[in-house]
Prior knowledge:
It holds the Pfam family NUDIX. This is 8-oxo-dGTP pyrophosphatase MutT (NUDIX family). It comes from Deinococcus enclensis. Its cofactor is Mg(2+). Keywords: Hydrolase. This protein is globular. The chain has a single domain (10-151), classed as Nucleoside Triphosphate Pyrophosphohydrolase, CATH 3.90.79. It is of the alpha+beta class. It has a five-stranded mixed β-sheet with strand order 5-1-7-6-9, with helices on both faces. Strands 2, 3, 4 and 8 form a four-stranded antiparallel β-sheet that branches. The longest helix is centred in the middle third of the chain and has 13 residues, at 51-63. The protein has three helices and nine strands; from the N terminus they run E-E-E-E-E-H-E-E-E-H-H-E.
Amino acid sequence: xxxxxxxxxxxxxxxxxxxxxxxxxxxxxxxxxxxxxxxxxxxxxxxxxxxxxxxxxxxxxxxxxxxxxxxxxxxxxxxxxxxxxxxxxxxxxxxxxxxxxxxxxxxxxxxxxxxxxxxxxxxxxxxxxxxxxxxxxxxxxxxxxxxxxxxxxxxxxx
Length: 158
């Protein structure tokens, strides 16, 4: 039997767990359908940019905070959104960091930034359609759920 191979676009992104007094910093972004999405600060890496550099840049854009002392927590990797127009091979890193500065987002998609108690984070996450939106895939949130429970693994296959 011949195995077929295919080439998928590669999506590299990095997000940061910023924690203060038992609360996790989340950004509020407006989705294409008008709904509000709560997510970790961070986002896509630019070509040639390391995941740590992408995390620091994206946190500054989305929150106004400067981060230092980034520490790797986990990597989520594999084929994502199989069968949709946005199917890709994803590499999503999660870091912790120290943050300085004042909250002042410059990213126009960010409509708010808030510190959320650990036990309320999952209640803000919307799972489900549209299938082309990886932020609503429960697998994307598994590393965060484990991190908040003190059970983070270093690798999460999709």
